[in-house]
Amino acid sequence: MTISKSVSALSAAAALAGVMALGGQTGISEAQADDTVKCYGIAKAGENDCANAAGTHSCAGQSTEDYSGQDWKAADSEEACEDMGGQTQAFEGSNEENVKDS
Question: Which of the 8 DSSP states describes residue 97?
Fold first, then answer.
């Protein structure tokens, strides 16, 4: 095997390892995801659990607006989400009920 082929093989292996490592970083564990629902409108800025519905960021903790209808946190159930003033579907604007109460 030539040096250039060895370097190419190492580069490909490193790229694949990086992609696989990033694939597991979703902000919440798979076990937690199976037992929870996405609850929109309850996260303060910087406290969201994962990417937002609008696609303006892709990671936990990157929300910039309190109680945005596009950002979510995990809730134990739909009922728990509603009890916190949230919704299980993304919505436009902010959750004014939670903004008033903060």
Answer: H
